[in-house]
Amino acid sequence: MGGPATTFDFNRLPVTPSDISAAATTIKDSVLATACNKSRTLSDICGCNIWLKFENLQFTSSFKERGALNRLQALSAEQRKCGVIAMSAGNHAQGVAYNARRLGIPAVIVMPIGTPMVKIENTRRLGAEVIVSGATLEEAGAFARSHGKANGLTLIHPYDDPLIIAGQGTVALEMLDAIPDLDTLVVPIGGGGLISGMAIAARARKPSMRMIGVQAELYPSMYNAVYSRDLPMRGDTLAEGIAVKAPGAITTEIIRHLVDDIVLVTEPQIERAVATLISIEKTVVEGAGAVGLAAVLAFPERFAGRNVGLVLTGGNIDTRLIASVLTRELAREGRLTQLSIDIVDRPGQLAAVSTLLAAAGANIIEVSHQRTFSDLPAKATLLELVIETRDQAHLDDVMAKLAAANFKARCV
Q1: Which of helix, strand or coil describes residue 221?
Q2: What is the mean pLDDT of the chain?
Q3: Which of 93, 304, 336, 370 is spaced 20 to 30 A from 118 at the CA atom?
Q4: What is the three-class DSSP state of 36?
Q5: How far apart are CA 283 and CA 232, in angstroms?
């Protein structure tokens, strides 16, 4: 992996710092230069100085507008007339659709099965024709290539394209313009377009910059490529925006030279980061956009005392999924708990439990009796409760009080 690029010859790479500067000029009047603000609370929690780059506040709620616009602006008049095609799990789709409509270019977007409906509907709303095809991004890509070739459409690749990479690299230019003292950038990796562009831009301006990539543990494709590993890729991840099985050839080359390390984060860690950003920063970030914070929360020793820049890459997440993430985080913190209590099936038992919980300061959210589907004696019943407590210590105290009153309670 890359070290300090003091003497690195950037001309060896498919994308150069001048390409990124040119992209910045190309997109400056059309793409928002988002805020890069310090989070005092997250800094205190993580033991380092943290700045957040709010790319989730772009018009399409993602940094992907940058690369898409830079690529579309380079099309010839004939290519614009014929139209473009792209494969995407959502954010690249919206970036291409939005800017294609602005430039009067017909656009077809191929999205894999399982793409969140919010991303599909937003892409259609932006004027693109959407085709849902393929179980994975790679399968969607294969369809996009064949369909595009058959219909004379120019492929706008989501990450493995020098113009796309250059456009994404403008994020780092803005971050260093705003906060010159940054010494570490923590960036999500799917196909690798964002971190490739940012690494070139940041290392050219500040050779000592530490570049850390983050992938979901379920999809460690770039990690495997760079470290010659063969970790499995499987399942549904909250970070579907970076669930890429085949990283780019161009991006892999750049990452090998300029990125210091790649770390993997688990699904609970990603969920915690999404919930933390909502509760502390009051900002909605999708799973892929929260993995940078997930890495810092999971491995604080790697970032202790540093000036860390995190890119909140996107905010396209279903409201139902947000609700689930927040509820699950409350359960992990011991603030929301499902209890099963064996009680005698006679009048007054529910009142006794309710009185005890009220005295202990717990709030009952849901209650139900299960008389039929249990292995308890006929004169007993299973009381199922969902209760709210302040934290894990409070929950432990409630459980102790139930036990002292001879109620057989257990957390489900």
Answers
A1: helix
A2: 93
A3: 336
A4: strand
A5: 32
CA geometry: angle 138, 288, 412, nearest 5 deg: 110
From the list 50, 44, 53, 52, the residue with the least C-alpha distance to 308 is: 50
Please write down the long-range contacts of 128-137, taking CB distance under 8 Å and 24 or more positions apart.
Answer: 128/93, 128/96, 128/97, 128/100, 128/101, 130/93, 134/87, 134/110, 136/112, 136/245, 137/87, 137/88, 137/89, 137/112, 137/243, 137/244, 137/245
User: Which of 319, 343, 335 lies closest to 389, judged by CA?
Assistant: 335
Q: Which residues pair with 228 in a beta bridge?
A: none
pLDDT for 290 beyond 70: yes
Rg of the Cα atoms in the chain: 25
C-alpha angle 121/123/126, rounded to 5°?
110
Of residues 8 and 130, more confidently modeled: 130
More confident: 342 or 213: 213
pLDDT tens-digit map of 47-101:
999 999 999 999 999 999 999 999 999 999 999 999 999 998 779 999 999 999 9
370: which strand partners?
382
CA–CA gap between residue 345 and residue 360 (Å, rounded)? 23
